[in-house]
TrEMBL record:
Domain Response regulatory: 4-122
Domain of life: Bacteria
Protein name per Swiss-Prot or TrEMBL: Response regulator transcription factor
Residue numbers carrying 4-aspartylphosphate: D55
Lineage of origin: Bacteria, Bacillati, Actinomycetota, Actinomycetes, Kitasatosporales
UniProt cross-references to InterPro entries, sorted A to Z: CheY-like_superfamily (IPR011006), NreC/VraR/RcsB-like_REC (IPR058245), Sig_transdc_resp-reg_C-effctor (IPR016032), Sig_transdc_resp-reg_receiver (IPR001789), Tscrpt_reg_LuxR_C (IPR000792), WalR-like (IPR039420)
Alphabetical UniProt keywords: DNA-binding, Phosphoprotein, Transcription, Transcription regulation
């Protein structure tokens, strides 16, 4: 079955461009469009998309609040949100990730990256390029706690190896890169990541990265 995509952006020309790119793919289907967050909520309820391609800055309701309502408690469907950002201008992307977005994509990304990002998010993974997550979190470090706050009790539920894996996830390494760094198999890394998400009550590795920064486990700018 095709992945059902809802396009949310207040610029009609951008939506048209995204639609042309996505409809050229046999496994993707654009089921609707919305020009702001309120319309997006209505469309999600009516159309039940698999992935919502969500702009941040929009009238009436921005992408952060729309993301929170789409992915939060009591949501109407399993839609995952992929945030669109201009990177240099959108200071609210960290908040969107906290709100429940599964990742983000730069608006000037090549067409093949857009397509692949949607497939990755639809499959339950956390975004196309983990390394960009770290760059983004570092860039907006002022929005995050200093790291001097008490360590959350939930962090103590992790084993030493799971803490290592969480740190590497937060620093933007893929599963393959983590496996090489720790000299274990990629399957083992996937198992550790799964345990981390379950123990911490997180949905995906994007939320895990934000958690690691917020808890002070990883400090912005640290190598």
């Amino acid at each position: 079955m095709a992945i059902r995509v809802l396009l949310v952006d207040d610029q009609p020309l951008l939506r048209t461009g995204f639609r042309m790119i996505l409809e050229a793919e046999q496994d993707l289907a654009v089921v609707g469009e919305a020009g702001d967050g309120l319309q997006a909520l209505d469309q999600v309820r009516a159309l039940q998309p698999d992935v919502v391609l969500m702009d941040i800055r929009m009238p009436r309701m921005d992408g952060v609040e729309a993301t929170r309502q789409i992915t939060g408690p009591g949501r109407d469907g399993p839609a995952k949100v992929l945030v669109l950002t201009t990177f240099d201008l959108d200071e609210y992307v960290v908040e969107a990730l906290r709100a429940g977005a599964s990742g983000f994509l730069l608006k000037d990304a090549p067409a093949d990256e857009l397509v692949q990002a949607i497939r990755v998010v639809a499959a339950g993974e956390a975004m196309l390029a983990p390394s960009i997550t770290r760059r983004l979190l570092d860039k907006y470090a002022t929005h995050l706690p200093s790291g001097d706050e008490p360590v959350p009790d939930t962090l103590h539920t992790l084993t030493e190896r799971e803490v290592e894996v969480l740190k590497l996830v937060a620093r933007g390494l893929s599963n393959a890169e983590i496996a090489a760094d720790l000299f274990v198999s990629e399957t083992t890394v996937k198992t550790h990541v799964g345990h981390v998400l379950t123990k911490l009550g997180l949905r995906d590795r994007v939320q895990a990265a934000v958690y690691a920064y917020e808890s002070g486990l990883v400090r912005p700018g640290a190598q």
